[in-house]
Design a protein that fits this description.
Length: 150
Amino acid sequence: QEEYKPGKALVEEELKNAISIHHSLATRASDYSKRPNVFYLRTADWRVFLFQAQNPEQMHSWITRINVVAAMFSAPPFPAAIGSQKKFSRPLLPSSCTRLSQEEQVKSHETKFKTMSAELLEHRSSLPEKKVKGKEYEELKQKEEYLEFE
């Protein structure tokens, strides 16, 4: 597609193809070897996109900027529904911007980090000793992937 130029109006088709970065995470694609300077962008709905920058500095700049903007403007997740507290389900992530100040947002992220770290430790320590199969295994795996990601 055409390169973005400041001041040029965006067409509806371009807006349909836009990727929302709320609750997203950009990371270096260290396991991707086909091209240099590639990074992953995992979105709130767990889609993964690959982007290639021209050089390592530009790649790190994109990663940093995306993560800073996502951290500054992503509203805290909604709590899980009461009926789904026995069965794991990822929390709903609001698409609206946060209403917290930057200081409150930092505190919110610090609290969330501590909570997720504790939940991950608890999850790993409470895994069943016998081999789990099928749906239960998938649910345990999904929860661990989510906690590691968060």
